[in-house]
């Protein structure tokens, strides 16, 4: 072999070795990397340092290439088989899903057709029902309307505390859109008739009563129709949700609680007739009466001006009554003195006037006697009129103070209106109450005091007139007497 052929052969061997190294398995690569470890031992040649046989090396490389290709072909076939199996499985799933979709679409079409047919049948049947019912449709509508109104009215009725489920029945009958049965109509008539009968009954029964402290106790309750309910002389409010009665802490003023207590006693003993408190508005009027303020609350609404008016009125009443009693006693003593003018007594004003005349009867002029009598009468008049001027001032000042309270209350009302507006009447109630209550108190103080002042002043004037008449008689009698000089001349 020539040198050129050896070079070509070596180049081919290098290319094939490179290809084998790239495609061989790891074991082949290891064998190629260490051919001495896997190659069979050969007989040593004399020329061991010479080059290896190219034909043996190429044959080994070819065997390795065929082995690698066979392995790769087997791997590719296995992978292709797996791919085909997966494709077939997914194709089967797709076919199954398409079949289910087709079945669902078919079912939806059938249901839609059935729904349309049912709607047509329903409209046809409703039309036939309306035709057959005729005027009964209006009747059943009236029944439902009456049932709804009756349920609303009976729900708040105290009679419901003794009944069962009539409110639930009436509410169900009002909401039900079907044709009511004969039994339902008969029961509706029965419940309305029972409520009508209860309007005129007085019933005593035991029911839960909620105290103002929050405690609930079973208490005997006296009910007058559906209007008024009492327990222990206390008026009760009916609570529909709890089917119990509530005793309010604040009760009506006046004789109402006493009348209720006596009526309960009469109902317990079975008396035929007894006075009672009846609220035809079923609690509305009674709640107004309960909310009405008493005298002390009105006085608190009047404020400082109200207290001042009460104090002035009290002082005026005391003075006026004291003057009337005192002058009445003086009048009685004076009339007794009139029956005995010859025996003047110092314990009455007429006796004191009559006692002045003998001391100035002789040796004094008539004018001097008249002056002395006038002086005594003036002193007595001062005693008669003591305190009446203060009563007169109170009579004049009381309405003015009431007017002052009115102005103050209106100012307060307008201030609240400027701050909060006029939308809430309760905000203005305080100022309006002060304005009205003070005016009322002023008039209540002035009018009676004016009458008492007139009575006391009349008695005082009557006493003064009696004294002036008697003093005028004394002066006239003294003037008719002769002078002292004339008496001596007549004696000579």
From TrEMBL:
Residues 33-52 are annotated as: Disordered. Residues 361-468 form the MotA/TolQ/ExbB proton channel domain. GO terms for biological process: protein import. Residues 87-114 form a coiled coil. Residues 1-32 form the signal peptide. It is a multi-pass membrane protein. One of its GO terms (cellular component) is plasma membrane. PROSITE patterns: TAT. It comes from the Bacteria. Belongs to the exbB/tolQ family. This is Outer membrane transport energization protein ExbB. The lineage of its organism: Bacteria, Pseudomonadati, Pseudomonadota, Alphaproteobacteria, Rhodothalassiales.
